[in-house]
Design a protein that fits this description.
2 copies of one chain form a homodimer. With 390 residues, the first copy, chain A, is α/β, with parallel strands linked by helices. In chain A, 43% of the residues lie in helices and 13% in strands. The first copy, chain A, is built from 16 helices and 11 strands. Chains A and B meet through helix 1, strand 1, helix 2, helix 3 and helix 4 of A and helix 1, strand 1, helix 2, helix 3 and helix 4 of B. Strand 1 of chain A pairs antiparallel with strand 1 of chain B.
Chain lengths: 390, 390
Amino acid sequence: MTNNSPKRVSNGVDTKSKKILAAFKSQGARVETKGRAKLKSKKDFSLWYTPGVGVASLHLAKHPEDARKMSVKKNSVAVISDGSAVLGLGNIGPYGALPVMEGKALIFKEMAGVDAWPIVLDTQDPDEIVRTVKAIAPAFGGINLEDIASPKCFAIEKRLIEELDIPVMHDDQHGTAIVVLAGLMNAAKVVKKDMKKLKVVVSGAGAAGAATAKLLIAAGVRDIVLLDRTGTIYAARPGLNESKAELAALTNPRRVAGGLAEAMVGADAFIGLSGKGVLTAEHIKSMAPKSIVFAMANPEPEILPGEALRAGAAVIATGRSDFPNQINNSLVFPGIFRGALDKEVKKITEATKLRTARALAALVARPTAAKIIPDMLDPRVVKAVARAVH
Amino acid sequence: MTNNSPKRVSNGVDTKSKKILAAFKSQGARVETKGRAKLKSKKDFSLWYTPGVGVASLHLAKHPEDARKMSVKKNSVAVISDGSAVLGLGNIGPYGALPVMEGKALIFKEMAGVDAWPIVLDTQDPDEIVRTVKAIAPAFGGINLEDIASPKCFAIEKRLIEELDIPVMHDDQHGTAIVVLAGLMNAAKVVKKDMKKLKVVVSGAGAAGAATAKLLIAAGVRDIVLLDRTGTIYAARPGLNESKAELAALTNPRRVAGGLAEAMVGADAFIGLSGKGVLTAEHIKSMAPKSIVFAMANPEPEILPGEALRAGAAVIATGRSDFPNQINNSLVFPGIFRGALDKEVKKITEATKLRTARALAALVARPTAAKIIPDMLDPRVVKAVARAVH
């Protein structure tokens, strides 16, 4: 088995981790297939296999558009990763990515009835990724790209959207952006500020950070300072890649230079899409009153919720299931693809993303600091999101 | 949707075909996914998704070999075709292939509990096929190639077997060869002839014909005449491709030249892996007494069973579910992969194929003309085949 240069793999395995690992080992696979057609008699075989299947084959050869009506394409999504940016764990290769893709396939089915299959790629070359996804696309009704490093993820997604006639979405980008926007809409209500006037710091200019900044701008937010490992992004900064140069032109109207400490002074909201422990109590103390802190790095947030509250944050959220206000793209991707499959939508547009965020936010009738986003187990979520896709 | 140059697509759609098509349209997908892990509480999400999944990801990044124990790889097979040789219908492209791949995925699950997912390729280039299959291989426990045209199928399968560490089998070749050998073993018993001494005519030198000839030889059959569209294959015949030149060296010891009429004179067994209506009553009348006729073209056999019997055949078989003696690779592929997955077998060897054929034949304790092969619904089949894989 090839393992594309794993990096940043920790050696510390504590007791809790040992228990989790034991659970995964005893579980084996977390998704399986299930027959939807009966195969109990010779007659069943004659219909669903030979000779009957020949009729369906000849029909689809002439009318490929009917694959969406009479095959797995009707309800299937490939969850695809090359393992180049898995959670906040870095480039840990296809096998490192597999548990995440399989977990998403499980969520797809349990929450939205979507037949998703995990596919991890033994290549990290952008052209090869595009070629491979296009080659396997005919039997799928949608493509959920996942955990692919930036900046290559931008070009890969763009080409696939252009070249395929099924919806393609890099969930790290757009799932995250949508759920962050929904959370920020309600957090602004809680602190009684106008969302469009918030000073927002986005820590992390990777896939999620870039897409979030763009969607916030599309929603009317005007003052966003975006940071990567080097510091704040601004137009004159040397050595920006194409994606970051584009972001520099769209963000940082006050031309804030420096690092996170400089950016956080007077900020209304912090959106963490970076890494464990990036944010300190001092950063939060330097923010404007009634500050909003979304610490969404996975599996370890930028700051732990308790510490953020003690430092004075008014509204806090993470990406995790074991803290309140889980800003997690699981609130978005199942419904997005549910809607896209049902309505045979070919592209997930900017307008759809904005509608989806609003629909999600609206599910919390009276937002409070403890509840800015609907619960992942709220059965209204998938329906509301799916309805917003058209 | 791209549709790779469909050919030989008939325009005649009769009443029976209309009914079958309506059944496929009302059915939609024939396989779906199913969650195997519970996802009902926040705790479930914390374990199977974030943050728990990070532990599994880090572990598999370091120990990719454990993917066979704690992911879909444990029980999954990709059923892959480029649609270049679908059933006996020719090159009808990926969408034409999809109903067959999906039907196989259904059979895999219902008969052997294997989680197979249909994948059809939007490329027919051999190098691209190899690259694509290798790229998506990490999350699969096995690769079932299907309905890929010869001669390219031989090189594609060979490279994938060499370059991957999971079992790869082109079912048109080996599934067919194994089930034919099993059937021939029992048919020889019925007509009280020594199988090794049979004069065998194999009509069709494509994927199935070539592999069948080779496996019969491995089982000790010495007199095989193989025919393609041009006629009998023999060493001196001009213009043989690499695969056929290899077959010419292994077969046709009597150097029979000409067409099917010439080859059939005095033959003990006819094995049809060619096309509809190739065999006539006159051909059968020219065979040796107590002749064996396997007319296995799908969906339309080389000759209809009734006509073959009237012409004097002692034992007849087809590939179809709606006639007796169904010599169909559905008897083989589910058990082969069941056994390979359970025992983590990396290659399906020649010895395994011979053992499998013997195991299958042995399930019919007292073969008769009406029963030379076990029924596809016989629950012993998958177990016996799986047991033979090691």
